[in-house]
Amino acid sequence: MKMLEHSFDRTEEALGYGKRCMELAPTGGPGYLQTARTYMLVGDMDNTIATINRYLELAILPNEIAMGYYQLAYAEWKAGRLAAGVAGYLKSMTTSPIIYDQARLELEELLNEPEANLLPPDEIDEVLAAHGVVLAPSEEAFDRLLEASAAAVDAGLFVVARSVLAAYCQHRPDDAIVNVLRSLGD
User: Fold this and answer.
1) 46-88: per-residue pLDDT in tens?
2) Helices 62-78 and 45-58, interaxial angle, to 10°?
3) What pLDDT, on a 0 to 100 scale, did the predictor assign at position 4?
4) 143: burial class by Cβ within 10 Å (0-12, 13-18, 19+)?
5) Residue whose C-alpha is closest to residue 140's, from 57, 72, 80, 31
6) Distances (CA, A) of 125 to 8, 122, 128, 134, 181
7) Per the omega criterion (within 30 degrees of 0), is the bond before 137 cis?
8) Alpha-carbon dihedral of residues 15, 56, 139, 142, nearest 10 degrees?
């Protein structure tokens, strides 16, 4: 799919592969991000944004979330929603350093637009939500982590349960859940 996304005469094929990846791995991020990128390359920013929002509903890890907001920021910018673009870049940059340098460069370019303004940190989420952007990690993602951890314990897969619960605790360091995490051993 990665090769097909760059071939404009094979866009439909690339989108087909991307959609199939999302069907086969509905909780995995790569299919969503590649599909969004394919939409982006042909200028379909509405489908780009919709696909990234579906991805952000699933994303848990900071690097994944930062990549989602980075791609979303560009799409929002090119769709003419400059405030959402600025907020997306800032959210990406404050979530993880994985794409920080590239996001910063693009944000600087976006801020050259006359109507674009830098946002204070406490307004980033508000602007994103006002534009219909999913705030990641979502409550549903947290619920799925707890369900997956419980299912892993029930199946006797304690290493898996510990890993999943550790991802949960990275965002929600609840004392009771941290004690459960400790009880699962190293």
Assistant:
1) 999 999 999 999 999 899 999 999 999 999 999 999 999 999 9
2) 160
3) 47
4) exposed
5) 57
6) 35, 7, 5, 9, 30
7) yes
8) 90
Contact 79, 40 (CB under 8 A): no
CA neighbours within 13 Å on the CB side: how many for 44? 15
Contacting residues for 112 by C-beta, under 8 A, at least 6 apart: none
Q: How many residues does the chain have?
A: 186
Token couple for 182: 């400790």
pLDDT in tens, 17-48: 888 888 887 877 888 998 999 899 889 999 99
Provide the CB-side half-sphere exposure for 179 (13 A, CA): 2
- Angstrom distance (rounded) from CA 181 to CA 186: 9
| Whole-number Å distance between alpha carbons of 126 and 157 | 39
The residues near 119 (Cβ < 8 Å, ≥ 6 apart) are: 83, 86, 87, 90, 127
What does the block give as tokens for 183? 């009880």
